[in-house]
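Design job #97: recover the sequence.
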């Protein structure tokens, strides 16, 4: 009885759906083509799992090597811290030839472990339904994943995946949608950002006080006379007011009032000499003139 309760507790803690009885006999997909299944798959919905509690942006990459090995890389991002956890391993085919039963052996986990699951159905281009079951005695646990090629699948793609669940009579009650929003840009640690910023900005060296004062003093700019003469004269676009023209003062033309009268008399005397009667008339200007 205690063993049964302990097994039930372990099954519940592993976050798979515990059930009484043996594992259902679900047949994996026949004629499964592993080469077409390679590539990137995004987790759309899944059963509740403790290992994926508080996670988002769950992605799985299947790649093949030249040696024929198939490598598996799981990327899981923590919803609170933004840190991405990567689990690496390799895939092996199990079961009958052409059957979609595989086993993944993870080696990068704290403790290496194997995980077997079946691919119930896929069209290789849009959706895939994966199922796993393990049990001891009359208790077993199941887990189911709905994968899509697109990070945000359309409703038509999900309807095709739901049809596979209905065909195998797998309940959708315990399914949870995986958060695949804002997965292209993941937050980085603040310390890494600060280190990158400090590495890009150079720290200026300390300058002595005396040299700093010398730098602050203005330096007189010396200009070569020849270069200055070659420089064009810069004139303002606003016209300057013209100065009033002053009359030219010629020394020979400046005369006093007395000199002007003498010059006038000298000009009149030759005329008087030619007409003596006018002189007499001038001297006797009081004599009335007979009319």
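Job complete. Output follows.
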């Amino acid at each position: 009885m205690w063993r049964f309760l302990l097994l039930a507790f372990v099954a519940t803690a592993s976050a798979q759906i515990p059930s009484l009885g043996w594992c259902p006999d679900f047949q994996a997909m026949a004629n499964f083509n592993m080469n077409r299944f390679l590539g990137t798959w995004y987790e759309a919905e899944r059963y509740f799992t403790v290992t994926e509690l508080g996670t988002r942006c769950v992605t799985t990459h299947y790649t093949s090597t030249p040696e024929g090995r198939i490598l598996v890389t799981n990327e899981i991002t923590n919803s609170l811290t933004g840190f991405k956890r990567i689990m690496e391993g390799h895939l092996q085919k199990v079961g009958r030839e052409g059957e979609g039963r595989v086993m993944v052996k993870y080696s990068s986990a704290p403790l290496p472990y194997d995980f077997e699951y079946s691919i119930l159905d896929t069209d290789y281009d849009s959706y895939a339904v994966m199922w796993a079951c393990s049990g001891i005695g009359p208790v077993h646990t199941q887990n189911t994943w709905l994968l899509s090629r697109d990070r945000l699948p359309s409703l038509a793609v999900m309807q095709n995946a739901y049809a596979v669940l209905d065909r195998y009579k797998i309940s959708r009650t315990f399914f949870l949608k995986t958060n695949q929003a804002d997965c292209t840009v993941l937050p980085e640690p603040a310390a890494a950002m600060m280190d990158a910023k400090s590495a890009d900005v150079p720290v200026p060296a300390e300058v002595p006080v005396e040299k700093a004062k010398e730098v602050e003093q203005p330096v007189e700019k010396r200009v070569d006379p020849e270069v200055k003469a070659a420089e064009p004269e810069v004139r303002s676009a606003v016209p300057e007011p013209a100065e009033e023209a002053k009359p030219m003062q010629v020394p020979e033309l400046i005369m006093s009032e007395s000199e002007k009268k003498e010059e006038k008399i000298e000009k009149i005397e030759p005329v008087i000499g030619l007409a003596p009667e006018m002189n007499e008339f001038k001297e006797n200007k009081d004599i009335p003139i007979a009319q």
